[in-house]
Amino acid sequence: MFYSFFHLFLLFFIYSIIGYMIEVITIFLNFHKFNFHRGFLLGPYLPVFGIGGIFMNFVVQKYLDDYFALFCICLFICSVVEYFSSLILEKIFKLRWWDYNDKKFNINGRICLENSFGFGIGGILFYRTINPIILHFLDFLSSRSLILVGSICFIIFFCDLVFTLNSLLKIKIDLNAYIHKDATEEVKKQMKEDLRKCLFGTTHIFKSFPKTSYKNNKSFKHYKEQLFEVADEEDRKK
Prior knowledge:
two-stranded antiparallel ribbon, 2% strand
């Protein structure tokens, strides 16, 4: 039971790290600069890639020799995962974390043809070349080694997840606390104090999702401005 769980978790963890690397490289190729603030979590992994990778790993095995079918499956599944990830996160936190409305052929700004096409091509390359190596490596590990490595990775991931969710919940609470209130000097001072407490986590999140938006809450824009103002002050103090 433990072997099966940690085998599956390590697959998820590795896929998430590979997704993070792909995001960083893609940003570099498009904008000629490195941006290591990708995703919610502080560590170098993107769970959405892990979830999609695990699901597709069970689906694509019998289509590995059919490139067109493999392309379509990867395109469809990854697009569905990205769409519903955006939708669920927006429902939970009342925030839009990424927006493709500026790209052609998008669906509600949550997914776009450009990204979906990339998922299809990337899926072919990944599942034909890299994935067999990953599966062979995990099969090569002894049960004890796999459980040990899996346990360490799980603890790291879980602690990161708890810290990040705590930061996100603080964002939500801070927003609700200042809706329809005047930005008096006292309120501003209190906001800055609250922001300092979760400065590291929240700045990471907003740098990861620079297009974060919440059109129905005017306080959100003010919150982001205050956050980075505090961050600048902290940098100057150093």
